[in-house]
Design a protein that fits this description.
The protein is mainly beta. It contains 6 helices and 32 strands. The strands form 7 sheets. The chain has a 6-stranded mixed β-sheet with strand order 10-9-12-17-14-15, with no helix packed on it. The relative contact order is 0.13.
């Protein structure tokens, strides 16, 4: 800019020529500045056991950088992250950046034995990825066994510099990470369930930013507090990092305005309570318009499985008005009125209000590949029902499946590495596009259909295909809401309903104008949900239930999206430090 000022100061017959050069220089400077505005963020994540005390007891807990929850990553759209994971724990581990599209880059996605072999104890792996056209709240977590019970954190993606939010800018922002806590080693909880075949023991507490809150023993001194000034509007970035539980969340006496879900902006609407499934995020605006005081924010279970044990406790944090000269408020915080644990009507009413802000004209209308997936639990019959290995219902073992195929993760190589290397015998691509046996999915299902087959079967998709998947809950064992997550993709939620999906009638009611754009969506209990997306991200991408006990039992498959034409439609080469099995 200084050079341009000097040029303008010199009278010359060629001033018009210099003016054009100046305009060109401004254009070039602005073009380069648009790239220089993007930053590269370098982090080291040291994964190791540290003493963590909750509920009066200290446990050796797997943490990142000694923190529970782990570090919050704050970036902007267009930024690049380079995160060196150093495994000093006793377990194999991998890290997943939940909701990040990872375009052409499955090597940074993280699920063990899908896109990489796990990082072994004493080893390292560097995740490198760029945020491309995404804004909002996402999160990161371990994707190995049950390590994500304590290895997780927020990933906040702000707009590019100079780009505003599509809603009034909040005065301040707070990540609200909902989690579960076991008063024992979560890996032992998993191991016991796998041995006995029964459901895993329920958690002992829910947490907000790692703290259980005032309603649990030995917890009130560490209860999280969030301070606000009277009259200001704040943004709560709510993340459900719980292992196995959907949750209701509310703030006493305050309304919440939903403005984003799964890092996609929504049409604003106001509610007194939100429901967030495991893996999902929801951003809400809150205006501090009540009498100055202390108000609980609280979360408790939304439980849809019938006759299943669950953690029926309530976690709390405190929204505290800054109170000028007064040192404290005279009364205890006010608790919000949360719905009953089985209030499906409230959950469905909330979900039906979520509409996409920028979906118009983007939803695929001509479908190239239509898939119908039944999702649900199952039971494995035992030859000796009295065995200690058969402690499920009536001497069976729990399992789970999609289209009656219970997914088996490989162990000698990752799916992506086997695919790249042309290794045979690791997986097949014959996953059925619909159940091989049709039945009344939400009715009285024959016991002969309760036991699935096991296999490592993938769904093959052509690059650029317009895909529709209908996810159908079943009544096998119990109807239940399954929060289904697809790695590497966002999708439009075009329809949902109760009972069995009717392909002849239900598509007529699909919302193709403003459906929400998500990465995780729940199947209504005893119902179905329909999603659409364009298969524009080559690689192998896990599709699974985000209730970890269900994933452990096999409620998963993977999408193999073939390369398109040329480099920009093909998977990147794997990094040199990719872990080996």
């Amino acid at each position: 800019m200084e050079i341009l000022r000097n040029q303008r100061a010199k009278p010359s017959s060629s001033s018009s020529r210099f003016g054009l050069l100046g305009l060109l220089a401004v254009f070039i400077f602005g073009f380069l500045a648009s790239f220089s505005a993007a930053e590269v963020h370098y982090h080291e994540f040291v994964i190791e056991a540290k003493p963590v005390k909750r509920l009066c007891r200290t446990h050796s807990t797997i943490t990142v950088n000694g923190q529970f929850p782990g570090p919050t990553l704050e970036v902007r759209n267009g930024d690049t992250l380079v995160i060196k994971a150093i495994n000093r724990a006793q377990y194999n581990i991998s890290l997943h950046w939940h909701g990040v599209r990872q375009l052409r880059n499955p090597w940074a996605d993280g699920p063990e034995y899908v896109t990489q072999c796990p990082i072994q104890p004493g080893a390292t792996y560097t995740y490198r990825y760029t945020i491309q056209n995404q804004e909002g709240t996402l999160w990161w977590h371990a994707h190995s066994r049950w390590l994500r019970a304590t290895v997780y954190g927020a990933l906040i993606i702000r707009p590019k510099m100079g780009s505003p939010y599509p809603f009034p800018t909040p005065k301040r922002e707070f990540p609200i990470i909902l989690g579960e806590w076991w008063d024992r080693n979560p890996q032992d909880v998993r191991k016991l369930a796998l041995y006995t075949g029964a459901a895993p023991n329920s958690s002992d507490a829910y947490t907000i930013n790692g703290q259980p809150g005032d309603l649990y023993r030995c917890s009130n001194k560490e209860t999280m507090k969030f301070q606000v000034n009277s009259g200001e509007t704040i943004l709560l970035r709510v993340i459900n990092a719980a292992m196995n539980q959907e949750l209701f969340f509310a703030v006493a006496n305050h309304k919440l305005t939903v403005v984003e879900a799964d890092a996609s902006y929504t049409k604003p609407f106001t509610t007194s309570v939100i429901m967030v499934g495991p893996g999902q995020t929801t951003n809400v605006l809150l205006t501090a318009d009540q009498t100055p005081g202390r108000y609980y924010m609280a979360a408790r279970a939304y439980q849809t499985a019938q006759n299943a044990a669950f953690d029926n406790t309530t976690t709390t944090a405190i929204l505290e008005y800054k109170n000028g000269k007064q040192k404290s408020f005279p009364s205890a915080p006010v608790l919000p009125q949360l719905p009953a644990f089985n209030d499906t009507n409230t959950a469905r009413a909330f979900i039906s209000q979520v509409k996409g802000l920028k979906s118009k004209g983007k939803v695929p209308t001509k479908i190239d590949k239509s898939l119908f997936f039944t999702v649900g639990l199952g039971l494995i019959n035992c030859t000796n029902p009295n065995s200690p290995r058969c402690q499920g219902p009536n001497g069976t073992r729990f399992t789970a499946s999609i289209n009656n195929i219970s997914f088996v993760f490989p162990r000698r190589n990752s799916l992506m590495q086997a695919y790249l290397q042309g290794q045979q015998g690791v997986f097949t691509t014959d996953f059925p596009s619909s159940p091989l046996v049709k039945f009344d999915y939400t009715g009285n299902v024959s016991r002969g259909l309760w036991q699935p087959v096991h296999g490592t079967k993938l769904v093959k998709l052509k690059y650029g295909a317009n895909v529709q998947i209908v996810l159908q809950d079943t009544s096998i064992v119990t109807t239940e809401e399954h929060p289904m997550h697809i790695h590497g993709y966002n999708f439009y939620v075009v329809g949902m309903g109760t009972g069995n999906f009717n392909p002849a009638k239900d598509p007529a009611n699909f919302n193709l104008i403003d459906p929400p754009h998500r990465n995780t969506i729940g199947t209504p209990p005893g119902g179905w949900v329909a999603i659409r997306f364009v298969a524009d991200n080559p690689g192998i991408w896990l599709l699974h239930c985000h209730i970890d006990s269900h994933l452990t039992w096999g409620l998963a498959t993977a999408l193999l999206v073939e390369n398109g034409v040329g480099t920009l439609q093909s998977v990147q080469s794997p990094p040199l430090d990719l872990p080996r099995c």
